[in-house]
Amino acid sequence: MSATTVRYDDVEVGSEIPAREFPIQRWQLIQYAGASGDFNIIHWNQRFATLVGLPDVIAHGMFTMATAGRLLTEWAGDPAAVVDYGVRFSAMVPVPDDDRGATLTIRGTVEEKLDGNRVAVAVDARLGETLVLSQARAVVQLT
Amino acid sequence: MPLNREFIGRAYESSPPFEIGRELVRHFSTAIGDASPVSHDVDAARAAGHRDLVAPPTFLTTLTFRRPSGPMGDPDLGLDYSRVVHGEQRFELHRPVYAGDVVVATSTVAEIRDVGRNEMMKIVSEITTVEGERLATATNTMISRGTAARDETAGSNA
């Protein structure tokens, strides 16, 4: 367990999980395709993506969900701490083929303290000003 | 073409059982940038009270692609995959997912309905170990763009 692990008694309704920036580059989408098994061509082939009307290669929604999940698991100090996690995919994340790629800004807010040292957290994930996950909520088991 | 509503309620079981191996947990964790020791180092996982490497919360998505089951591949459903976008996803984890778990998913078409000009299809998967232990419930909502049945009474020729 990390020394910085948050404890149930230390959080209140309204407590913030500070915003973090998560850069996404093309190679990460290739790596995620291999790990997840999702080889949908729109996630790695710019020629095809633009042919079907997309602005560029777009990140897997599940990659965005997993990335936002890291905000929670690293806050709690254990990937097993997230016991319920749901999102709505509200906008695409185009990932240009340059040195910067796309950068997601992700933060969280404790919405409710539940029994058994669990908390309900709302997640805010944006690309620039655009919300890419909406109604993103998790239940996190704290110690 | 609208989706075939006769599929509502149909259930599908993934086969053969999926063996969650340590290297896939490490591979997936690395791919999402998760460096948690308990997902990479068995000793660290055990020291933290886990029985083996812990999979990240969205790990079970790998099952969708490595053991595809469900109605999506059935031509009678009428799904044009090029029109599909992922609408919503939820994982309720009844206990942590560990390397060494051998799992089966039973996926049920819970809902197909119009949402404006689109259709949504919700698939609920109950994931259990081969020993019968409930592991997780995964809810996957897909959007089929522009396939809702047209309202013939609207009087539009467009």
In short:
The complex is a heterodimer of chains A (143) and B (158). Chain A has 143 residues and is α+β, with helices and mostly antiparallel strands.
Report on this structure.
The complex is a heterodimer of chains A (143) and B (158). Chain A has helices spanning 26-36, 46-51, 61-76, and strands spanning 16-24, 82-89, 102-114, 118-127, 130-141. By secondary structure, chain A is α+β, with helices and mostly antiparallel strands. In chain A, strand 3 (102-114) and strand 4 form a beta hairpin. The longest helix of chain A has 16 residues, at 61-76. Chain A is elongated and about 50 Å long. In chain B, strands 1, 2, 3, 4, 5 and 6 form a 6-stranded antiparallel beta sheet that branches. The radius of gyration of chain B is 19 Å and the shape is elongated. Residues 154-158 of chain B have low confidence and may be disordered. Chains A and B meet through helix 1, helix 3 and strand 2 of A and helix 1, helix 4 and strand 3 of B.
